[in-house]
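Project outcomes to date are best conveyed with an example. Our students and postdoctoral researchers have been running inverse folding experiments weekly, and each run begins with a structure described purely in tokens. The record below, which covers 135 residues, was selected by the lab manager from last quarter's runs and is presented without edits.
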């Protein structure tokens, strides 16, 4: 009698996430992976590597830059995308402010609540039909 190999719960979750990412790539015509350089998006990026390497990702990476990011995180984001040779789209909230689609009550107001506007503009500009992100 052979002993059946079982995955740990974490390995099962990883395999399921990889499966879903591959399904998205196969079923959607223009998906994008949200990548800020933060811990959640680093996990998503690693799942994409496991799902598609050694080939290129079948989608670009995208970050919504509020303009209030730590420079070290932005540098890491750029470095990691370059290391992988993947396309990185950066949508800047400052552009939404210039267009008037984002209006801050005062200059020191948190921009986090307004980044949805820039995200929606980037989705429309890129004609993306699916976004993948971690939370």
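After processing, the design step wrote out the following sequence:
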């Amino acid at each position: 009698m052979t002993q059946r190999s079982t995955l740990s719960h974490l390995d099962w979750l990883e395999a399921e996430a990889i499966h879903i990412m591959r399904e998205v790539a196969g079923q959607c015509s223009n998906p994008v992976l949200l990548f800020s350089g933060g811990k959640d998006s680093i996990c998503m990026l690693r799942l994409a590597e496991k799902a598609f390497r050694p080939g290129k990702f079948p989608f670009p990476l995208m970050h919504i830059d509020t303009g209030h990011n730590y420079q070290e995180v932005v540098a890491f984001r750029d470095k990691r995308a370059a290391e992988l040779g993947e396309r990185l789209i950066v949508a800047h909230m400052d552009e939404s402010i210039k267009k008037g689609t984002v209006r801050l009550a005062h200059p020191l107001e948190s921009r986090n609540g307004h980044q949805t506007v820039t995200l929606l503009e980037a989705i429309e500009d890129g004609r993306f039909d699916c976004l993948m992100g971690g939370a």
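The chain is about 50% helix and 15% strand. The helical segments are 9-27, 39-52, 71-84, 93-99, 115-126. The training component of this project remains on track.
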